[in-house]
Amino acid sequence: MIAIGPAMASQPAWLKAATIIVGTFILEDVATVLSAIAARAGEVSIPLALGALYFGVAVGDLGLYGLGAAGARWPYLRRFLTLPKRERTQDWFSTNVIRIVAISRFVPGARLPLYTACGFFHAPFLRFALTAVLATLVWTTCLFLLAMRVGGWLLAHQGGWRWAGLAGFVLCIVVVGHLIARLQTVSK
Q: Model's pTM, two decimal places?
């Protein structure tokens, strides 16, 4: 959600949904938080916001799998992928695809390398897709509800400073995600 305010409220539902979906491809957690705040402010309906979020995140996850699968076919693309170094990796990914997808949904910074690796090592697509969709439903709903609560409080109690509070909240979500991702790469 780029803008929250009267201009957004007057937009057609399809444009609101498209904006949310595109936002998930850029920064899905930020898109989730901003969509929740927009829903709390009455700018977008909750079902529309959640539906667009679920769709955008799931399509993005399936796209990462597809990117990994394409990297397995084309060596030129392979050099852009971050893949784990492990013997018997294909068997390991096939055996543990549900666990990998479910856990990485909740660990910032883990989805890109692990979802592309699932595609690269040909983890079973149906198990990958079903787990990705279910984990998305849980994670996105939890983050959305948290953001609605915090965003609603900021909108109701911060007066003229509410936009600074909302910006700080969004920035906090981004920074925490990046810090956790950085800690993961340092600890490897």
A: 0.77
